[in-house]
Amino acid sequence: MRRHALVVGLLFATSGCVTAIACDQDSDCHAFGVVCDLSLHACTIAYDGGTPVDAGDDAGVADAGASDAGHPCPCPAGQTCRPDVMMCQPLAVHVLSPAAGQVDPGAQVRVVASVTDWDGGAWVASRIPAGGTAGVSLPAALNALDAGLYAGTFGVPAGSGTWSLIAGWVGANDSVKVTTVVCSPSCNGWEACLPAGDAGACADLGLSLTWLAPTEGQVVPANGTVGLSLQVATADGGAFSRPVPLSVDGVSVSPLLPGPMWTGSFDAGSVSALVTLVAGWPGGPGSTVHVAVDGG
Q1: What is the domain extent for residue 12?
Q2: Whole-angstrom Cα distance, residue 26 to residue 42?
Q3: Counted domains in the chain
Q4: Which of 26, 109, 146, 267 is most buried, by the most CB atoms less than 10 A from its CB?
Q5: pLDDT tens-digit series, residues 80-102
């Protein structure tokens, strides 16, 4: 049989775990009749018999990362086999989103994380474990989105606090910290609740609302549905994603829903009339547009 020139680390098998023998000089390995590979700081021997198979196959959350029977390097959860030195190494987990920062109390927060193998390649499984600060509602797991990408939704408590959302295993994980702040009394729809000492304080976001459709004085046919589009911006350019109240001739109707633009609709009715649309909050920021219903 052809001998393979691959050199691998000398191993001890302890309680089912394979561990390389560390070394700093050849004399550390003489008892085993081998030498020290200083580039790896591991005692090395010649390996005869083909290329070892990476043991990173999906085995479920509880033992994800463990090798299949017969693989040369069985590893515990959260680790993968490095076949060139026959060592178990932790998987690399990185939370990609969200960024650390403030979220609404009681919010559902989607976490996306990447997992890579010892060589930087995507680690492919069906799911990875999730963890978090006491009080955080955890997903059963972060499920695979794509090769090496996993996602799950965490629920943060309704009170004030700082919460860690964790992706991965003990010894191989990453986390992001999010903060919730509760203001009492609660803030108006155009305000944000910001940290202020041990409590929170309401701050005006400086919203500007601009009608995109319909335009001022636009004529619309009777008995039709009129599409609405509104632009919303904050004074500092920050994010805003709440619905905006809408009234038609002073009567509250379904709000405009957030997106790239805030959108909605209203029924024009059957009688010719000048209709007043107001987007915004009584006592707060708002914008008005008039449309002419043509009853024929």
Answers
A1: 7-90
A2: 10
A3: 3
A4: 109
A5: 888 888 888 999 999 999 999 88
